[in-house]
Write a structure and sequence with these properties.
There is one protein chain. It is flat, with a radius of gyration of 30 Å. The longest helix has 23 residues, at 466-488. Strands 1, 6, 7, 8, 10 and 11 form a six-stranded antiparallel β-sheet that branches. Strands 12-15-18-9-19 form a five-stranded parallel β-sheet, with helices on both faces. The chain has helices at residues 14-21, 149-157, 172-184, 197-210, 249-252, 275-284, 302-306, 310-313, 382-386, 397-404, 424-445, 466-488, 493-500, 517-521, 539-550, and strands at 2-12, 30-33, 56-62, 78-84, 94-96, 119-129, 134-139, 161-165, 186-191, 216-218, 227-229, 235-242, 254-259, 268-273, 288-295, 343-347, 350-354, 364-371, 389-392, 510-513, 527-530. With 552 residues, it is of the alpha+beta class. It has 15 helices and 21 strands.
């Protein structure tokens, strides 16, 4: 069984049947129409054969089918081509090309499951699983009532042609992190700013609350479409906190607060549960689990915030998965509460009680982020480090290439030409290579922890033409990248000057004022003045400076 990402269907209307049976001499393709944006279904596949109207082809490899009983029924993997006519075309259609009897995918014309006549309640299916693989099947009208309700309802709502997404649309990294989190309970995402830590944590939260990557699974060994629900039996609760220097144990674990509801006391002070205790008690119930997301972990004094619960954060010191004590389970005594006296509280309209001593339930998960350049704020001690699995996230040119849609491509534009002859793709390739170059030099001088993440230029895909593209990079450069480099290379002007190729007399993003020998003897260093508002540093000049820089 494989988790399903999405399903595309087209009913066996007369035109589709004529195509698959070869009845109509002029009908060669299965028409999907223009109603749906099927690009979302094929979002991992490259576009080929572009047209002047914005159209393109998408090649899809349908996985082989192996019959578990009769090997003679096996079907080899087969490539089909999906065509989009383009936004500038008259019809703006999508269709599956060349599906005549001798070229059609075999399971769509299986004589045991395809009558050869119009059946508007039976369907051609394309099934995409979360690992990016495609499977072809057909769904008969007699089988539709037995489909999971959410799939049946989706097809019924769009009975001719449609698409439905069942999974959380997440990256491969997020799925990997989610599985590591379930295996180890505590995960720390560590890396430079801008590498996507917060975005990945948001995706992990989506998976956690969804009960897994997908709500539907598919049996790839079955010729008839066989689906099952993957909805988790667990009830999931998530809480997000951002640590800062004022964040305290009282907010996180347990503290004291005044209670103004008491009528017989002038001042009543009582213990109040913190965020972590709330989640822990929720997860103690059968079939429940909880996820605590901590952004900027080391901006607070973590040892002080966790207090005595740092011991039971370790999975081996908790209750087991069934809520029972083991030989290694540790109990901790909570402050402000008498031994044996529970702390009562209400959450989401339901009553809970925290027992003292406290035992940590097993299904409490923690995912946290930490910027690698912030180690000096509150360094993590060895005891805390040992309780977390580290997931390192450093700038990745391949991730940026995939986001830009330029994977496997190299910069080949005519260097030094006017901006008007370049394309948006040329600019994206150059930006990727520039960031890669800058990071390679940062590693040499400062180390990998100080490199620049891909989010600094992530918005470049929003540009509609080459002029907007270079202006967007100019803004990213002067408003984000250069200020960060100036901070990193504070009192290291010569190194920054070398990296950016901004020695005196050269055209670059800075004016460089070199001190005289006498001034150098007195301790002077070169001065770099920004050219952000210098009209002579034009978009063409910026482009050519980037070309020279990445060639160094």
């Amino acid at each position: 069984m494989k988790p399903v990402d999405s399903i595309l269907w087209r009913n066996y209307n007369q035109a589709t049947v004529d195509t698959l049976t070869g009845t109509s001499k002029g009908q060669y393709d299965i028409r999907l129409g223009a109603k749906n944006n099927f690009d979302a279904f094929f979002d991992r596949e490259p576009h080929t054969n572009p047209t002047l109207h914005g159209g393109y082809d998408i090649d899809v490899q349908i996985e082989a089918y192996s019959d578990p009983v009769n090997p003679a029924e096996n079907i080899a993997s087969q490539k089909i081509t999906v065509r989009y006519m383009g936004a500038g075309s008259a019809r703006k259609d999508w269709y599956i090309r060349s599906q005549r009897p001798h070229t059609a995918y075999p399971l769509w014309i299986d004589p045991l499951r395809f009558s050869g006549s119009e059946e508007r309640d039976s369907y051609v299916l394309l099934i995409k699983t979360t690992d990016g693989k495609y499977y072809g099947r057909n769904l008969l009208s007699s089988e539709l009532p037995g489909m999971p309700a959410f799939l049946r309802n989706a097809i019924t709502a769009s009975p001719e042609v449609g698409m439905y997404v069942f999974s959380a649309r997440i990256s491969g990294d997020a799925e990997k992190i989610y599985r590591q989190l379930l295996a180890h309970n505590n995960l720390l995402m560590y890396g430079p700013p801008g590498t996507g830590k917060t975005t990945l944590m948001q995706e992990v939260v989506e998976i956690f609350e969804n009960g897994g990557v997908s709500k539907l699974c598919f049996d790839e060994t079955s010729k008839a479409p066989s689906f099952g629900s993957m909805e988790s039996a667990a009830h999931s609760k998530t809480s997000w906190v951002t640590f800062h220097q004022s964040y305290s144990y009282d907010e996180f674990i347990i503290g004291m607060m005044t209670d103004h509801s008491s009528s017989d006391k002038l001042l009543d002070i009582r213990p109040v549960q913190g965020k972590f205790l709330e989640l822990s008690e929720y997860a103690r119930e059968e079939g429940h689990r909880a996820l605590l997301v901590i952004d900027e972990l080391n901006r607070a004094n973590v040892s002080r915030v966790f207090g005595e619960l740092i011991t039971v954060v370790e999975p081996g010191k908790r209750l087991d998965a069934n809520g029972n004590k083991t030989a290694n389970t540790v109990a901790v005594q909570l402050p402000y509460i008498k031994p044996g006296e529970p702390l009562l509280f209400t959450m989401d309209g339901k009553s809970y009680e925290v027992e003292n001593p406290f035992y940590m339930p097993y299904p409490v998960y923690i995912i946290a982020s930490m910027n690698s350049i912030d180690k000096s704020i509150f360094p993590l001690d060895s005891a805390l480090r040992r309780r977390f699995r580290f997931y390192n996230l450093y700038p990745d040119a391949d991730v940026l290439s995939a986001h830009f849609g330029i994977s496997g491509k190299t910069y080949s534009a005519a260097r030094g030409a006017p901006l008007s002859v370049y394309t948006c793709e040329d600019i994206l390739l150059l930006v990727r290579d520039f960031l890669k170059y800058v990071n390679s030099k940062i590693v040499i001088f400062l180390g990998a922890d100080y490199t620049l993440g891909q989010s600094y230029v992530w918005n470049m895909t929003e540009a509609s033409d080459v002029h907007e593209s270079i202006k967007m990079f100019r803004a990213d450069l002067f408003e984000q990248i250069l200020p960060q480099l100036e901070e990193l290379f504070r009192n290291r002007t010569e190194q920054l000057e070398y990296i950016l190729g901004c020695s005196a007399g050269k055209d670059g993003p800075y004016f460089v004022i070199e001190p005289s020998e006498e001034e150098i003897d007195l301790g002077a260093v070169p001065m770099m003045l920004s050219r952000e508002n210098d009209a002579s540093f034009s978009d063409d000049a910026l482009l050519h400076w980037m070309e020279e820089t990445v060639e160094k």
